[in-house]
Fold:
Amino acid sequence: MRRGIGFWTGLGFTLLISAFLILPVLASVIAGVTANQFVGLSSGLTTRWLVEVWANYGGTVLLSLRIALATLAVTLLIGIPAAYVLARHAGVTARLVEEALVMPVAVPGIATALGLILAYGAVGDLRASWLFILAGHVVFCLPFMLRSVLAVLLALDLKGLEEAARACGASWPQRFLGVVLPNVSGGVLAGSLMVVTLSLGEFNMTLLLHTPFTRTLPVGLADAYTALRTEMASAYTLIFFVLIVPLLSAMQWAASRAERLGR
Amino acid sequence: MPDRLRAALLIAPALAVFLAFFLVPLGQLAVAGGAGGYTTILTEPRYWRSLASTLLVAAGTTAITLAIATAVGLFLARTRFPGRGTLLALLTLPLAFPGVVVGYLVIMLAGRQGLVANISLALGGDRIVFAYSLSGLLLGYVYFSIPRTLLTVMAAAEKLDPRLEEAARSLGASSFGVLRDVLLPGLAPALTAAGAICFATATGAFGTAFALASRIDVLPMVIYTEFTLQANLAVAAALSFLLGLATWAVLALARGASGGAAA
Structure:
């Protein structure tokens, strides 16, 4: 097939934008394993910076993973039942509740965090606990789980499925666990990947919510960017990429899979 | 168990979390400003200046991102060529990179040791550095917004009816005419939705500005400074509450205008 000038212009522009997005990532990854960034790659490759970062900031990685998994557990437990109720009810009340539950996404994290500190900053030891950060992450991530599951539920003939199961004598727990849950697994998977990814990278809220004892990965990164040499900051970023890029790829895969199944 | 009672029990945990960790904190935020806080931000010119630069960056981000995403999105949605999938994967890789990491990537690109600086030096020019300014922040927000906007535009472009375009062409419309009269009106709801998300994100996020460690006084940075350095809680609370209200309103309006396509 012959390609016209329009094709080559379009391709050139698209390549330019891809370069804009990818080159800084590559530069950062390379700087993280370069012995001396000022000299360049000729100074040799090293894992020294990665080891040093892990020794100083390994704790932030583990804390972030713990918070992300806890956020996932809570959003699964409260998000799936909520999505189910919202899918079964068409009334105005249900739409208002849905509207309310997704509101935290629309409000900047720094505002929510400041509110959390005002409301609960003085309650017991909560301020110093990682549970304080968890509360913020749950509020912010819940809408993503809710929407993801709700989208799949609304594409199903939920009522018909449940009627059929009921006619066969299934009780409500049997219907929910045996019929509803298996049918929304795609939405649950997509929502889960989203929640873990967002929680691992959450900064807008966590910068205010954290204390010196509860420093998460992104907060540690911000600290490294201002305080450490480029090689260390890049090595730290590399550790973050190693965590987040597989999650992002899985997310794209889950989304395209859900789309294929939905058609 | 009656259906209504079961529904109430199933949605209660999600509502409880929303009330306790979002609505109550936001209420506290609204009153913590007090008459003093709101009067101060309305009467002091520097808060107005900061509002102006915030809106300027957000509007610039939205315009540039929409232009890039429309060009690339239309190209990728309407052409097939080897490597298209890879290109799309690269363009959407940064989908959920946190703002703070994006800030660092801007430094890798346009900072003192950045790619642009090194290339301009190698070409015999001056060292070009613009990461730590308003244009650096703009670059970061555009970087942050491209992947998501691109996905929205492509989804909408794939739903356009190709017959409309053929009809326009057979009636003698030029390529530009087709773009202006057929493609853009067809994409308008998606562009409104995506644009609102760009705008709201660029208004409320501060990870990028924080990582650039610049003296850019966009609103979220001002809130952070007032709260942590000046301990000026009333002003920080008043600013946060108004900022939250504004981003929420932008998203709600756009959702109304685009028929529910906006998040």
Notes: Chain A has a mean pLDDT of 91. Chain A is about 80% helix and 0% strand. The domain at 57-230+237-262 of chain A is CATH 1.10.3720.10 (MetI-like fold).
